[in-house]
């Protein structure tokens, strides 16, 4: 049974990574004909290979940050906050994003 869990985790991490890369490419207006470059870079980036080999949670943190940016851009703060749940799993790795969220909240109150 542990092998099934391992395969599911790897598959979920791969899906989270590829979805994030695709969504970020769209958010930042990447040219559609060069989208493949983003996928190649993401899959050949050395820390990504370590992420898959060790079964780390980094792909889900990237997914959380991507969903947060996407929902803020679409003016859906409730869902953006929901996306932060994925970031709250390892807050010490995302402290700069938490800082940016705090600054944004303070800036909007002024």
Quick structural overview:
This protein has 110 residues and is mainly α. The protein has helices at residues 2-27, 35-44, 46-54, 58-73, 77-88, 95-109.
The counted number of beta strands is 0
Largest sheet: none
Q: State the helical fraction.
A: over 70%
The helix tally amounts to 6
Shape: globular
Helix/strand order? HHHHHH
Low-confidence stretches: none
Radius of gyration: 15 Å
Span of the ends, CA to CA: 54 Å
Range of strand content: under 5%
Q: What structural category characterises the helix and strand content?
A: mainly alpha
Q: How confident overall, as mean pLDDT?
A: 92
Provide an overview of this structure.
The chain is mostly helical and 110 residues long. The protein has 6 helices and no strands. Helix 1 (2-27) packs parallel to helix 4 and helix 4 runs antiparallel to helix 5. It starts with a helix and ends with a helix. The mean pLDDT is 92.
In terms of topology, how is this protein built?
Layout: H1 2-27, H2 35-44, H3 46-54, H4 58-73, H5 77-88, H6 95-109
Q: What attributes characterize this protein structure?
A:
6 helices, 110 residues, single chain
């Amino acid at each position: 049974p542990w092998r099934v869990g391992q395969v599911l985790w790897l598959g979920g991490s791969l899906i989270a990574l590829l979805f994030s890369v695709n969504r970020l490419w769209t958010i930042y207006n990447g040219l559609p004909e060069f989208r493949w470059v983003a996928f190649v870079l993401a899959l050949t980036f050395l820390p990504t290979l370590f992420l898959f080999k060790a079964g780390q949670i980094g792909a889900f943190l990237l997914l959380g940050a991507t969903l947060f940016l996407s929902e803020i851009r679409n003016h859906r703060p409730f869902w953006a906050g929901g996306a932060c749940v994925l970031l709250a799993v390892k807050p010490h790795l995302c402290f700069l994003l938490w800082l940016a969220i705090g600054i944004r909240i303070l800036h909007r109150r002024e």
